[in-house]
Write a structure and sequence with these properties.
This protein is an alpha/beta fold and 465 residues long. Helix content is 31%, strand content 19%. It has 15 helices and 19 strands. The strands form 4 sheets. Strands 1, 2, 3, 4, 5, 6, 7, 15, 16, 17, 18 and 19 form a 12-stranded mixed sheet that branches. Strands 8-14-13 form a 3-stranded antiparallel sheet. β4, α3 and β5 form a beta-alpha-beta unit. α10 runs parallel beside α11. Bound molecules: S-adenosylmethionine. S-adenosylmethionine binds next to β17.
Amino acid sequence: MEQEIVLQWEHKGRLVLDTRAAEGTGLRLTEPEMKRLVQPRALHFIARHTAQGAQPVRELNDSENLLIKGNNLLALYSLKRVFGEKIKLIYIDPPYNTGKESFGYNDRFRHSVWLTFMKNRLEAARDLLRPDGSLWINIDDQEAHYLKVVCDEIFGRENFVANVIWQKKFSPQNDARYFSDNHDHILVYAKDKNRWRPNPLPRSEKALARYKNPDNDPRGPWASGDLTVKTYNPACDYPIRTPSGRVINPPRGVCWRVSKQRFEELVADGRIWFGKNGDGVPRLKRFLSEVKSGMTPLTIWTHREVGHNQEAKQELRKALNDRAFFHTPKPERLLKRILEIGSMPGDWVLDFFAGSGTTAAVALKTGRRFIAVEQMDYIREVTLERLKNVARGESSGISPLVGWKGGGSFLFARLMSGNAALERAVRSAQNRTQLSKLLDLLERAGGVLRGDGFASARDFREHFG
Ligand SMILES: C[S@@+](CC[C@H](N)C(=O)[O-])C[C@H]1O[C@@H](n2cnc3c(N)ncnc32)[C@H](O)[C@@H]1O
């Protein structure tokens, strides 16, 4: 079906491997070249990390956490065979295209390349999501609205869930030229909104404090709610006599929430509160034991609840024992909130713009399984080091909140670039001896392979042997 409204831009139909490389050959790839680009690559497993340290990877199972070094477009296409429709939640925090990054194109070029770059990845990511999964994108004002339209196109406008506003800064920047920008957007999409539901959040101390028991009701603490509603219904407009004898009518244009008969039933059941002296406007008692087990998430998240950018930098510094630095981490409390709403322990969570690995760290600490992808070399001294420390039980970020003492494991892997050549060599092996030699060589080169549907060197051997 033809779409009624489309966002059109230059390079929309291309594949962008890397925004920095786009000006070179990136945008001139031919169709067959683009097809080749998205063929699955093998993963070279470097080591398995646990609290006890690094061990060689001799065998694999499909439930191990993965930290992958490599380009995320290639990684997404490579993960498809094993992880297609398996991921419960994807969180990404892509480069915001603020103009501060070092690719020196004119703004129009950068804007269009960035949109293509995101479109390519979101299309591939959608295939990895479970039918009841969700996608969360952290973004600022610069691109949020264009990105929303691109997401509508890929996920369907009907699957848009919310635009969460996160207060990322707590103090105003008075030297800002126009406005002091202190929020980010978090766009939330369901793969299928009919099948996705947010998990209720645990009630905060503040929310719990609203439930009291001034009349010693045996049903326990309660909070009182308004008994009037604005949608006027004459059947619900009647006078009420308080225990003190005062007669109260609903304000003009407003009526009571319930009919006279229902009101009397509620009074008989001790569910109407007329204030301490029995003289107040009637209110409805809502018992803590009867309300939904948690709170429905709101769309404004303050720094008090989920942290801010400075907090994120401090907790990362602590998690890395001050040995490395990363400029744009997100606070662990923010990811905790997201993972709590969108996933349960044991679910797969994916972040393919991993940066310092906040999503993976929070996933480990809260019992989710994770895949994290990062292309830059600092993955070793920042992301890998952080996750090693998490496994050893570091005490920063949400550790005290969740009682984290360490544990868990993950595999550190590299996306192989020479997979095609390798496969060609294996396919053209003349006999078993040659094949066996090749596989031995591969294994000695470090670890086992997965990619093109082969879970291990043994699978590979069985298939070709
Ligand atoms: C804003 S940071 C993410 C920060 C992260 N949320 C955290 O808490 O640390 C974006 C990251 O995406 C990475 N990135 C950008 N393009 C990528 C690509 N094509 N493949 C893999 N990683 C990429 C960047 O190197 C950077 O580390």
